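Run log, item B.
One chain of 219 residues. Sequence copied directly from the ordering sheet:
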Amino acid sequence: MKTCYLFVLGALLMLSSSLARAEEIEAANIARAIGDGQWEWTVYIKGSAELLDNVDCVEYTLDPTFKESIQKICQKASDATPFPYSAKGYGTFVIKIKVTTKDNHTLSLSHQLVFDRPGPEEGQIALTNVAERQGEKLWKWSAYINAGADILGKISCVQYTLHPTFPNPIQEVCSVGNSGQPFGITAIGWAPFTLKATVFYKDGTVSRLERVLDFSKAP
C-alpha cells in the first residue's frame, strides 16, 4: 500500500513539474507593413530550447473571418520563430493557441497580435562587414551586428538574406559568438551585393537592416 502511495505521489510530482515548465512557453509575433493599410505577420511560440524540443504541434485559432481559421503547425522550422504561422491582414485580434507536447501534455495560450513594435531606433544597431581579398577576383567577407552590449543581449537570432546565387541564401545565427563579430556570418564571393538582416529580439520585436557589402577596404 505504501509503495503504491509513493508511486502515485511521484507521478503527480512529475506531472506538476512538467506542467510548470510547459507554462514557461509563451507566444509572440512579428509584423511589417506592406501597404494600403495591410500587414504581413507571423505568430510563433517562445521558450527554452529544451521546452521547444518537447513540443509536438501548435494549433492556432484565428479570427473567424479567416477562411481556414484553425492552423496546426507541427514543424519547428526556425529557432528565431519556432512553430510559425504567417498571414496577411488589416487588423489585430486575439489568437487562441493550443500547444501539445510529445509527452502528451497540453498548454492553452492566447496572444494579441501587435503591429507597431519596432526594434531599437536607427543608430543604435547596424549591419556592418569586413572583407579580405582571396585571389584576383574573390573576397572573403564577414557580416555582423554592430550594437551595444545591452542591445546584443536582447537579440535571440539574426536571419541573413544573401544574394540568390548563393547555395544557402537564407542563413540564421542564434548565438552572439565570441569572435568580436556578434551574430556574424562569413562567406566568399566575387562582387558586392545588398545583404539583408532581420534581427529577432527576445521580447518579440524586430529590426530590419540592410547593407551593400563594402570590399573597398579589403587588404
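Observations after the first pass:
- The radius of gyration is 21 Å.
- The longest strand covers residues 26-35.
Flagged for discussion on Thursday.
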